[in-house]
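User: Run a structure prediction on this.
Assistant: Running it now.
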Amino acid sequence: MTRRDPFDEIEDLLERMGREFEELGGTLEGAGPEVPRFPGAREVDVDVIEDDESITVVADLPGFDADDVDVELRDDALVIAGSREESAEFAAEGDDAADAGDAGEGDEVRYHRRERRLRSVSRRVPVPEPVEADAATASFAAGVLTVTLPKRSPDDDRGHTIDVN
């Protein structure tokens, strides 16, 4: 009879759980096996670009509008969050269920399939240099958020909310 080592079984279980956990989503900050992966984080790809005068963060938020996105600079990190409702409607051939939003009070509506969910994404991006929070700007066009953070002296450490245009 072969004797089983309970510690080997626990190690195998932890390895399987780790692989499953990694498949749930992307990383919050950076890449590599040492960084935990979280749902929703993979959906916000960012570039951090630094020059002599500023740090620019470019984030991809496809499907979001400027009103759906919140940007805040806090604790030497840029926090980007987005939330919106997604919906998809499908109708069987010959049915007008997809036009149900136009149906009047007396019209009969029959959905064959309708799905809705709230989609939320967030990303915390460490800022590599001290920046001037009051002079920060953000713009949003075609699903791409661009935040420009002018560099500053390290004396000012307060948080600041950035309006998205």
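The beta strands are 26-27, 37-38, 45-50, 54-60, 69-74, 77-90, 113-126, 137-141, 144-150, 160-162.
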